[in-house]
Amino acid sequence: MARRSNRTALILFLVALIIITGSFLVILAINLFKGENDKGSVNPAVLGYELKIPQILEDLNPDLNVAEYVLEAKEGESQFIEGLMTNTSGYNGSYLGPVLKLRKGEKVSITLKNSLNVSTTIHWHGLIVDGEDDGGPNQGINPGESWTPEFVVDQNAATLWYHPHLMGETADQVYQGLSGLIFIEDEVSDKLNIPHDYGVNDIPLIVQDRNFNSDGSFDYQVSMMDPVPGNVMLVNGTISPYLNVKEGIVRFRILNASNSENFEFRLSNGENFYQIASDGGLLSAPVKQRRLFLAPSERAEILVDFRASKEPLSLLANGIEVLSFNLEEMKTDYGVIPETLAVIEDIPLGSSPNERNFVMQSMGINGTINGKYFDMNRIDETVKLGETEIWTISNVGGMMQTSAGHPFHVHGTQFQILSRDGQKPSLAESGFKDTVFVRAGEEVKIKVRFTHKGVYMYHCHILEHEDNGMMGQFIVE
Question: Considering only CA atoms, which of 298, 227, 306, 314 is closest in space to residue 263?
Fold first, then answer.
């Protein structure tokens, strides 16, 4: 009996040893895979740099009703960490790009020159344009070539952005620095008593997470599971930035330009701020908030009243300081928080709208929509021009899903959220959107209508998921 017990104990010991050894080897393999090109990571400690403000690109056409811009995608070097240079990419510079200022009703021409050594595209994220001008993955621009889309701005004031969209390369090219902002203005925004002095009280904030090697190079890592989150936060390409602000109301246009990370923003003193716009433009009235959640590619405009602040103040993202404020005690036109902003026209639904379902499912870094991986040669949906539809977007999770959810982006339109799991959307999501975050197990219904013809994309805006199949293609005709 004792011999049998000893044998059983020995067997159990050997089984446990095999399991522990196997787990160790799996962990070792994952770490080797993730760090095979790692040169030693670095988390720079700096006292702070003044926040960089992107330049506004010069309009080359003197006609007030016509805008003509030239962008050049190129490689360069940027200094994020004192004494170290990083190989980067940018538009008209070494990192990020200038702001494109457009007006509703304006005729616009934008030329992109590709001076990279690889192909690229440029997608006008949030702009409502014909499919042939959208800049999706089927509109690649080879090295040394140019592309010049032309369109008329056909939407209200909003903060949008532009970035590459080449299939399989989007995540890498955005991580290297290819992103920029688009401002649309109109008569409604002109008349509002909100800050309009760009770089003074109207401040863009492009927020990204990055990892760096000890030599200053980017340490971009993607495993079979998901991208590795960055341990360094950049705002407008600045590490540990500070901003000098006057006593009064300041407008911040915030873009989550991360490849994959969600950000929850709040002020360090816990005070309220006022959200005045979402992806597609102004809300009907300011929404008082203490926290602002933005998934990758989502935007929001907020107003912060610095008159009441008598202590050091900073903006936090996920509890980490991303921007500190130096308050200048100067008498200014303080401004006010408006009671109303814009009239939000409801997208007409009709009596029996067509309905479609989009089911997102992921397996580590890979993913499908409606059980299909993206195929450039396949049209997944055909949509009628000008007809409102109800799209139900659900996230059923999946094997090895590590992300909290999926930001679902639709090209060629601005939609309205009908419900989240049967509940009405929050006031902050009551305006126009082009991206909606769908948590695991959640179902979101949207009203969507297309006013321009062409081929467009819908996809998860975790860029690594998009690059690995979580995207579909539809045609509006």
Answer: 298
Q: Give the pLDDT confidence of 86-97 residue by residue, as tens digits.
A: 999 999 999 999
Collapse the DSSP code of 228 into the 3-class scheme (helix H, G, I; strand E, B; otherwise coil) and give the result.
coil
- Tell me: do 81 and 145 sit in the same domain: yes
| Token output for 222 | 């993607």
- The arithmetic mean of pLDDT across residues 155-183, rounded, is 98
The parent domain of residue 99 ranges over: 49-187
Yes or no: say if 463 and 171 are a contact pair by the CB < 8 Å rule. yes
DSSP 428: G
In a shared domain, residues 223 and 167: no
**Is 31 within the bounds of a domain?**
no
Within 10 Å of residue 6's Cβ, how many Cβ atoms? 10
- Place 366 in a pLDDT band, splitting at 50, 70 and 90: very high
Asked if 92 and 117 sit in the same domain, the reply is yes
Q: Which two tokens stand for residue 477?
A: 């005709």
Measured CA distances, 50 to 65, 235, 245, 257 (Å): 35, 10, 12, 20
Question: Looking at the DSSP assignment, which residues form a beta bridge with residue 48?
Answer: none
Asked whether residue 3 is assigned to any structural domain, the reply reads: no
Cα 152 to Cα 146: distance, rounded to the nearest angstrom: 20
Same domain, 210 and 290: yes
Instruction: Give the rounded distance of the alpha carbon of 60 from its chain centre.
Output: 28
99 and 178 in a single domain? The answer is yes
> Does residue 116 share a domain with residue 73?
yes
User: Starting at the edge strand that comes first in sequence, how are the strands of the sheet with 354-363 ordered?
Assistant: 366-369, 354-363, 389-395, 443-448, 416-420
Query: Is pLDDT above 80 for 456?
Result: yes
**Contact 444/436 with Cβ under 8 angstroms?**
yes
Cα–Cα distance, 236 to 94 (Å, whole number): 12
In tens, the pLDDT along 302-361 reads 999 998 766 789 999 999 999 999 988 766 666 789 999 999 999 999 889 999 999 999
- Give the type of residue at 316: L
Greatest C-alpha distance within the chain: 99
- Sequential DSSP letters for 364-401: TTEEEETTB---TT---EEE-TT--EEEEEEE---TT-
Q: Give the Cα separation of 18 and 169 in Å (integer).
A: 40
**What is the count of structural domains for the chain?**
3
Q: How far apart are CA 70 and CA 244, in angstroms?
A: 31
Structure tokens at 258: 């991360």
Answer yes or no: do 170 and 53 share one domain: yes
pLDDT tens for 63-85 read 999 999 999 999 999 999 999 99
Contact 432, 283 (CB under 8 A): no
Residue at which a domain ends, from 187, 219, 244: 187
